[in-house]
């Protein structure tokens, strides 16, 4: 189906060149501080901590992706705007940190984790969700054990995906554009939390992510296993972490509802929203986050 004119225009407005052109006009009009972030999730997360120093909420701009940001960084320095506008570019580390493909620049702030979701879907924030939103009492439910199951689940799924990560590294290094969002991680997590099973990834899973099967080798799998030796809550792809948390919160809610029906617990919040989508949880759990240390220099 052909794209409409409005869709084509919107896509053009989101290109790096178009975003930088608007930025350059704003600088000419007097803009002297700006915070660039990658996407909508970043905008919602970082804006809640502003103002910091001279960085104001109204001066946050989206680049619609890391590649756009990297190009805008280059244009920012190439055209000498760094002497006219104090900009900060908050950039996800994602796989580029592991692959050594991060952009350089004094004003580029690289996260110390995969992405913004890795600030949000932490065990401590999940524990706060249980207390503040679920209203569960530690006298009625073993909250530490619940948190441990979440931690172990994230770790096991992270390790399970090692071969796919390794193949994706090889594909990226050979110039392929991948589609990680097509892997149904929420279903993988839901089955795991219900049964404890993790089915072996199939050729279809790789193809769905646009990873050519030629890169599904033992060598690439070993590279993936090296990657997943890292701390999962920092380095599991943020969107995947959000989906795993979504599946686990749903599973936990179902368990607690069954216990309440059986008369085993009495403190479950009856007005709790049952929208446990990743987006809804990002908003609720993000509210528990403190300002990341990467923002501290903005207040200087």
What is this structure, in a nutshell?
By secondary structure, the protein is mainly alpha-helical.
Describe the fold and architecture:
The protein is built from 15 helices and four strands. It is mainly alpha-helical and 300 residues long. The protein has two domains: 5-111, no CATH class; 119-286, no CATH class. A four-stranded parallel sheet has the order 2-1-3-4, sandwiched between helices. Strand 3, helix 5 and strand 4 form a beta-alpha-beta unit. The mean pLDDT is 94.
Summarize the topology.
Blueprint: H1 5-13, H2 16-28, E1 33-37, H3 40-47, E2 60-62, H4 66-78, E3 86-91, H5 94-99, E4 108-110, H6 117-120, H7 123-134, H8 143-160, H9 162-173, H10 185-195, H11 203-208, H12 218-227, H13 232-235, H14 238-261, H15 278-286
Parallel strand pairs: 1-2, 1-3, 3-4
Helix pairs in contact: 2-4, 7-8, 8-14, 9-12, 10-14, 14-15
Query: How many helices does DSSP assign?
Result: 15
Structural class comes to: mainly alpha
Number of strands: 4
Order of helices and strands: HHEHEHEHEHHHHHHHHHH
Residue-averaged pLDDT, rounded?
Answer: 94
What percentage of amino acids are in beta strands? 5-15%
Rounded to an integer in angstroms, the radius of gyration calculated over CA atoms is 21 Å
Overall geometry comes to globular
Distance between the termini: 51 Å
Number of domains: 2
Strand order of the largest sheet: 2-1-3-4
Unreliable spans: none
